[in-house]
Amino acid sequence: MSYEKINLTMLTDFYELTMAGGYFEEGMKDIIATFDMFYRRNPDKGGFAIMAGLEQVIEYLQNLKFNDEDIDFLRSKGIFGEDFLNYLKEFEFSCDVWAVEEGTPIFPGEPIITVRGPIIQAQLVETMILLTINHQSLIATKANRIVRAADGRSVMEFGSRRAHSYDGAIYGARAAYIGGVSGTACTISDRDFGIPALGTMAHSWIQSFDSEYEAFCAYARRYPDSCTLLVDTYNVLKSGIPNAIKAFDEVLAPLGCRPKGIRIDSGDITYLSKKARKMLDEAGYPDCKICASNSLDEYIIKDMLRQGAPIDSFGVGERLITASSEPVFGGVYKVVSINKNGVEMPKIKISENVAKITNPCFKNLYRLYDNESGKAIADVITLFDEEIDDSKPYTIFDPEHTWKKKTVTDFKAVKLRKQIFDKGELIYNSPTIEEIRTRCSTQLETLWEEVRRFENPHTYYVDLSEKLWKTKDKLLNQN
């Protein structure tokens, strides 16, 4: 799926354009500004989030162009000068961009994307960067919570029909796959992203036949190698399972095929799955899997498994694709530095709400890993040109409670972000969806279990370097 199919340059908040016009008329169009995207808190009170959506941001930035229709519309507003409109007509993206790679665990306050370049350009892209990263990171994070709750059992994303628009379904499926689901019901996401499309039947298939048994037999004849039957249209234990077993015996067995599974979509699924498992085993089908669906989330799945439900896979719909328990990711995009005539001037947003005070300056981001365990110790935000020498002890400290300090040794310091664009030229090769998904799984293993737990997770440390902290402290005192 490519943004080339639709021009999204005008998918921006109108104030981006009024500010752009103002910068132009004030002679500020060539000032270099640095903007950071970051978020303030983890969804669902979790210990981390998962970065997703970068590939779509890249596609958007590569295709930024105001066409004649856009220019005519802006002219019709009657507030923009012709010189500015001509500037937009000849617009070419020329910023530098750095970003955390997709599939990487991220934490509040970290600059996960930085855009540096002419202020009009760096400002203009705010809306689409936030829209794209906020959505996919939210869904990837929620999907991963559900996958972890399933404890090794397959989770399928079944939410297309409940998503917030078709883009929500398509890119939500992509994000969910990054987060660890095994596949999606969304066929177009298989075509465009290679995410396995999965699915069997709806209740309407069964209701379209004269009997449930006939519906099962017809499906088994048509798909003998992948036969999964939906058994809750009428009565799971009195009708669905007995008819499924009969169809397995009379259609699949003569063909030398084994059933793939049954799906239960309503009722007390924990109770029904226990009874169904016993019936299937006694009928000679211990290898027939049981799939559960119906308004599931990580908490329901954990409870079902704790109660001994013999479920092999889960189909999760609206509570995944809409992240209904926490439907807003809350990423923001703030200016952190202005460069005038070669002089770098850090900028800070101050608030009585401490969480809304920004970290100033053009920055970099490191993750420190313990060499012995391979686990992540902390992340450190530094000035851009700072290097952390991991051959020497390094002291980290809480930026708000500075007396809380720790000196780390025998560690590896890794820059967490890659440069994506250099003066508007793409210099990054986007990995495949499978590579992103693997990165997610691998990187999550570097987090301690205490950070990954659902309830009251350990707060992962995101610290400031001493140089950055001193700059921030000076700006706070000055203001």
What is the radius of gyration computed over CA atoms, rounded to a whole number of angstroms? 26 Å
Kindly name the structural category: alpha/beta
> Helix count, per DSSP?
17
CATH homologous superfamily caption of the largest domain: nicotinate phosphoribosyltransferase
Q: What is the strand tally?
A: 21
Q: Regions with pLDDT < 50 over 5+ consecutive residues?
A: none
Can you identify the CATH class of the largest domain? Alpha Beta
How many independent structural domains? 2
Taking all residues together, what is the mean pLDDT?
Answer: 96
Distance between the termini: 47 Å
Can you give a write-up of this model?
This protein has 479 residues and is of the alpha/beta class. The chain folds into 2 domains: 3-139 and 327-478, nicotinate phosphoribosyltransferase (Alpha-Beta Barrel); 147-321, Aldolase class I (TIM Barrel), CATH 3.20.20. The chain contains 17 helices and 21 strands. The two termini are 47 Å apart.
Q: Which keywords apply here?
A:
alpha/beta, TIM Barrel, 2 domains, 6-stranded parallel β-sheet, 17 helices
SSE topology sketch:
Elements: H1 14-25, E1 32-39, E2 49-50, H2 54-62, H3 68-76, H4 82-89, E3 96-100, E4 105-106, E5 113-118, H5 119-124, H6 126-149, E6 154-157, H7 166-179, E7 183-184, H8 187-193, H9 203-207, H10 212-222, E8 228-230, H11 236-252, E9 261-264, H12 269-282, E10 289-292, H13 298-306, E11 313-316, H14 318-321, E12 331-340, E13 343-346, E14 363-370, E15 376-383, E16 394-397, E17 405-408, E18 411-415, E19 417-422, E20 425-426, H15 433-444, H16 449-452, E21 462-464, H17 466-478
Parallel strand pairs: 6-7, 6-11, 8-9, 9-10, 10-11, 15-21
Antiparallel strand pairs: 1-5, 1-12, 2-4, 3-5, 3-19, 12-13, 14-15, 14-18, 16-17, 19-20
Helix pairs in contact: 2-6, 3-4, 6-7, 6-13, 7-15, 10-11, 11-12
